[in-house]
Structure prediction request, 365 residues.
Amino acid sequence: MPFLGKDWRSPGWSWKKTDDGWKRIIFYGHELEDNNKEIDLKALCSDNKENVFVGEVCELASTKRKKDLYNNNTKSQFVFTDKWIYVQKGSTKERHGYCTLGEALNRLDFSSAIQDLSRFNYVAKLFQLIARSQLRNLSGAAQKNYFNILEKIVRKVLDDHYNPRLVKDLLQDLSSTLHSLAIHVGRCVLVGNVNIWLCRLKTIHEWKQQLNNLHIPKQICNGVSFNELPLHTQNDILCKLSDACDIINLGQATPTLQSLSESSILWKKLCHFHFSDKQFCKNLVLSKSDHVDWKLMYFTLRKHYPMREQYGDTLHFCKHCSILFWQDRHLTLLLKDCGHPCTAIDPDSCLMPISPQHFIELFQF
Prediction:
């Protein structure tokens, strides 16, 4: 296994001169991070039955567990902030190997993307899909980076109160997957010590509790409140929502909003936004008066067909260069920068937005 550190070369062993001669110093966890601080061997060599002596080096089973937990909590040593990566699906004379999902997760700057509200939902949905089916296909470094970014996502929700429902669903799917892998399937499909995964499962449970206990304070507004807006303006705002749960929750605020949220025209627009006319014909739902019950129609169609995904900003893929990248909309408008070193005559014609599901399919060989 190659040495992974701040320097690609192994720093070698560290030695300490004692009265009995030179003795090797053993480092654990934070000692490596704190520039080779010394560790007291006498503290390790106790009468504990867990101690395992190998020559002059005494290794404690409990110390190893602490080291494993430390490695789980330590941030990735290599942090990439690439705006684009080359997606290679096979070996050629010029390039050998291929790009994996874990490599894309490590190299693309997802940590900065979650700070942008237009990209937050996209990253959270992508992480939810990875949690459902692709988690054990990631490398050890990619899994570690995945949980580091996930922690930042949870921190942002707790600090900014932004879209907690989406992150709750993400943590629920991840918890179910980890429980299945760590408890039922076993360690054969997991990278690393099973104790690390149990620790991660405990951390996810704590995050879920923090989100369930999240209290969003009431904002004090000195201007016009939502209830003071004209009815047609409130209705227009409801029509801009693409999530049925948001419409239902908003309808529980006031009796007026409850009446507007039950509008048949509102649910008809929502059905036409997410589904096609062909799908309507196969699942037509009529009320007692032989009229279409659009609200019931929406929830019926949602059981059979995927809903239309809508994101403020997504990753883009250049079909000419085979490059996956974040496109900065401001630079695109001001400098006419396509976001990557494209060699096409018309770069805009080669760009293709990538949905979270398409992102995962892009790395399936």
Notes: Residues 99-213 form one domain. The radius of gyration is 27 Å.
